Every structure is written in structure tokens, then in C-alpha cells.
Amino acid sequence: MTVARSILLFLLAALAEIGGAWLVWQGWREHRGLLWIAGGVVALGLYGFVATFQPDANFGRILAAYGGVFVAGSLAWGMVVDRFRPDRYDVVGAAICLVGVAVIMYAPRSG
């Protein structure tokens, strides 16, 4: 159950961070206004809290692993929200990142 919880937390963190950054982008670059930016700032703050619920106590490990989730999640967000079409190098790169996440977070360690 710990791995499933950790994966769910990574997905929630990605949604908050990528969604928050997207809202700021929309507010500023697409001239949608301060409410969009404010929503983005709130979402980015929520991202910081979600990461604290990871079962592993090592901040550096959590943030390093989340980097790979962020890469793959950003491409997925772009596909769904902005109709971005990743090329094969995007897909291979994201897959490599997710393998890195699995190694960093879920490899057996001697305790």
C-alpha cells in the first residue's frame, strides 16, 4: 500500500504544480488576469504541502524523484490541455525519467 500511496501523492503533486504553473502562464502570457495567476499561486503552494506526505523522510530523494514525474506529467498535461503531440524523443525521455523515479523511490534498500 505504501508504493500505491506514494504514486498517488506524486500524481497529486504533479497536478498541483503543473496546473499551478499553467494557470500562472495563462494569467500572464495569455492575458487572462490576476485571478488566474492567484489560482496558480495557490495550486503551487498546495504542491509543496502534498510532497510532505510522501512516506520517505528524505527531502532530496522525494524532490529528485518528483523531477521525473514532473517531466512525464508536463508532457501528459500538454497533450490533454494544450493538444501538444510529443514526438518519440519526448516519449523515450519521459520513460527514462519514470524508470529513474522507480529506481530512486522503490528500489530495495538495506535498512
UniProtKB/TrEMBL annotation:
The chain crosses the membrane at residues 6-25, 34-53, 59-77, 89-107. It holds the Pfam family UPF0060. The keyword S-adenosyl-L-methionine does not apply. SUPFAM superfamilies: Multidrug resistance efflux transporter EmrE (SSF103481). Keywords: Cell membrane, Membrane, Transmembrane, Transmembrane helix. GO terms for cellular component: plasma membrane. Its main location: membrane. It is found in: Cell membrane. It is a multi-pass membrane protein. Belongs to the UPF0060 family. PANTHER family: UPF0060 MEMBRANE PROTEIN YNFA. This is Small multidrug resistance family-3 protein. It comes from Micromonospora carbonacea.
